[in-house]
Design brief:
With 267 residues, this protein is of the alpha/beta class. The protein contains 13 helices and ten strands. The protein has a single domain, classed as 2-enoyl-CoA Hydratase, Chain A, domain 1, CATH 3.90.226.
Length: 267
């Protein structure tokens, strides 16, 4: 199974039910990603889409974290290496594009803190199931960069503009129960029932007409395709932000375990 898809050591695969593939993000203790892990999660969708043995996919995290986002070294390198920053810009755009165009249903089982590209995929998935221990976090304002990747595009569609502004501008965490209440996820369940509930929904979808499910999903995702310019601008602004002083200060403050001291801009 490990050799079935080109994903390095960053993703683990199993079939918990017939024609249901479970992908477990397994990078590090808390699920932090470097570029290779990020790229594996970007590219896996093209390969699974072409696998006739897979009818539905579950995405989850290993251990106590669903996904912790990019490791600090990746963020630091974004601030000093323009070529690396452009690689991340290309890979991030491809992540969103590949998930939007993925034809089979995706069920996400959010089993703890959720940040970065793992969170982006959860918010674009077809059924998002959060454990009560889940914490959904778009921390960009604390990292000194614009909220790019997915959130500016997806969150207004899911929970409305007022809650989007609240959480994206403050960077505050959204609990699993609150995420369900405001419509950010499909449902919230007890931690010990999370995986089984994801398997149940993936199995249910795998038994529906593949043509009906995939064409319905394609039509629904035209909402996301129409919103692509919103995502494209937000993500470009995130990458631009990495070239400024706030990102440098935020990363250093995290490493020093102190509050960030952001300078007042002239503009």
């Amino acid at each position: 199974m490990a050799d079935r898809y080109p994903s390095g050591n960053y993703l683990k695969f199993d079939f918990p039910a017939e024609r249901v593939l479970r992908i477990t993000m397994s990078r590090g203790k808390m699920g932090e990603q470097d570029y290779e892990a990020h790229h594996a999660l970007t590219e896996i969708w093209r390969h699974v889409d072409e696998d006739p043995d897979v009818a539905a996919v579950i995405l989850t995290g290993q251990g106590e974290s669903y996904s912790a986002g990019g490791e600090y070294e990746m963020s630091r390198r974004n601030t000093v290496d323009p070529e690396y920053r452009m690689k991340m810009w290309k890979d991030g755009r491809n992540t969103v594009r590949n998930v939007i165009d993925f034809s089979k249903p995706i069920i996400t089982a959010i089993n703890g803190p959720a940040l970065g590209s793992g969170l982006a995929i959860a918010m674009m998935s077809d059924v998002s199931i959060a454990a009560k221990s889940a914490r959904l976090i778009v921390a960009h304002s604390r990292l000194g960069v614009a909220a790019g990747d997915h959130a500016v595009m997806m969150w207004p569609m899911l929970c409305g503009m007022a809650k989007t502004r609240l959480y994206l501008l403050t960077g505050e965490a959204v609990s699993g129960e609150e995420a369900e209440r405001i419509g950010l996820v499909s449902m919230c369940v007890d931690d010990d029932s999370l995986q089984q509930r994801a398997i149940d929904y993936a199995t249910k979808l795998s038994l529906r007409s593949p043509t009906a499910v995939r064409l319905t999903k394609y039509a629904i995702n035209n909402w996301l395709r129409m919103a692509w310019p919103i995502f494209d601008a937000a993500f470009a602004l995130e990458m631009l932000s990495f070239s400024g002083p706030d990102a440098v200060e935020a990363i250093q403050a995290i490493l020093d375990k102190r509050p960030a001291n952001f300078a007042r801009p002239d503009w």
